[in-house]
Amino acid sequence: MKARTSAALLVEAGHVRINGARETAPGHGVKIGDVLTIALDRGVRILKVIAFAERRGDAQAARLLYEDLQGGPK
Known about the structure:
There is one protein chain. By secondary structure, the chain is α+β, with helices and mostly antiparallel strands. It has a single domain (3-68), classed as RNA-binding S4 domain (Structural Genomics Hypothetical 15.5 Kd Protein In mrcA-pckA Intergenic Region, Chain A), CATH 3.10.290.10. Helix content is 19%, strand content 30%. It contains two helices and five strands. It has helices at 3-12, 59-62, and strands spanning 16-18, 21-23, 35-40, 43-49, 66-68. Strands 2-1-3-4-5 form a five-stranded antiparallel β-sheet. The longest helix has 10 residues, at 3-12.
């Protein structure tokens, strides 16, 4: 399954919060400074959006676009 599809399913299932508010619309935009709380099978990730990329990149490039607020590995 592609990443975008997986992300949309998480949002639709109510597993994503933006700034503490549950989000159920996959097309909802995020902005720099937003904090995303994502409930996954093996735990919860809390990420702060710190930048956007002009083009889609690999996972290593994506890690530069957010801050892990739990201090864990990216």
